[in-house]
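hi! just following up on the protien thing from before. the input was this:
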Amino acid sequence: MSGLGERLREERKRLGLSQADFGALGGVKANAQGKYEADERSPDSGYLEGLASAGVDVLYVVTGKRVPVTAEGLADDERQVLNHYRSMPENDRSTIRRMASALAETAGRYSND
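and the predicted 3d structure came back as:
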């Protein structure tokens, strides 16, 4: 199982942010962010609160367990995309999944590993 630092790095990369930009979300400099990711230092609650308000899955960072997404947690545009997706035949859904993965990988925000 990965440690807190590794999960922080994973969330930072998922959002496509540098250590400086990600650290700024929690109110710290890139140097402190690097130490958190290397498990040389532990973040405080203020840092985690800042990350949470920016959309970081803090439960995952701390425990390794993802927060389940509920219908109420979806934005209107996400709900609309999901409704369109669900109305498609399976072969079109497959194409959409491949396209979404390719776009996210190109943007550097997703790894198919």
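The chain is about 60% helix and 0% strand.
The helical segments are 4-14, 19-25, 30-37, 45-53, 58-63, 76-86, 90-106.
cheers
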